[in-house]
Amino acid sequence: MKCLICYIYAAMGHNVTDESGFSLLESLISVAILAVISGFILQMFISSSMVNQKAQNLDVGSAEAISAIEVVKQSSNQDDIRSNSFFEGCVFEETEGLKITKYYDSKWKQVFDANKTNAAKFILNVKVTQAEGFEREKYSDIALQGDYVVSRELAGLNDIFATIVEITPENKQIELISLNTSKYINT
Asked: Does residue 80 belong to any structural domain of this protein?
């Protein structure tokens, strides 16, 4: 039984005899074909690994952003937000609301030292601002619970924004995730 390469040689007009074993040329062609196929397979593995890492970063980043929003939504004032363990070691700024910045390394471990922010790979930014077009006057929200009427004062509607950005090796910031919601802040 002749091998495939023998048939190819015969089709090209070469005289091929039925000898057992492979010639040097047949072996070289086989190695070249194997190298080309292996290169394509290796490229697929590398690409899938990069896509997998990006998907993992999106998953973890989404979870962190959602957690931050939930902490803010469950807090009744800025002191509750500041004292929550989720925001421990974060940078707080009060400019047109409250801005919170949390730094992470490439393995999503929090970077606590503000001087080491150059080691950060990801940044969580949370901003709590008053909703546009909403007056900050107090009003009563009356709800019937059982036989009792409960009245509470609300201070206003606030917008909560959470974004995760990735810092590239060129020091550019690429936004991965951007979430926002609103909540009423109690007085």
From this structure: yes
pTM of the model: 0.63
CA pair distance 185, 148, nearest whole angstrom: 23
Sign of torsion over alpha carbons 63, 65, 66, 67: positive
Domain of 110 in residue numbering reads as: 29-186
Residue at 3 is within a domain: no
**How many domains, in total, are found in the chain?**
1
Residue 100 CB burial class (10 angstroms; 0-12, 13-18, ≥19): buried
Looking at the domain assignment, is residue 177 inside a domain? yes
Residue 18 inside a domain? The answer is no
**E strand or H helix at 159:** strand 148-167
Residue type, 67: S
Q: What is the pLDDT of residues 9-64, one digit of tens each?
A: 677 777 666 566 678 888 899 999 999 999 999 999 999 999 998 889 888 888 88
Task: Tell me the β-bridge partners of 93.
Answer: 99
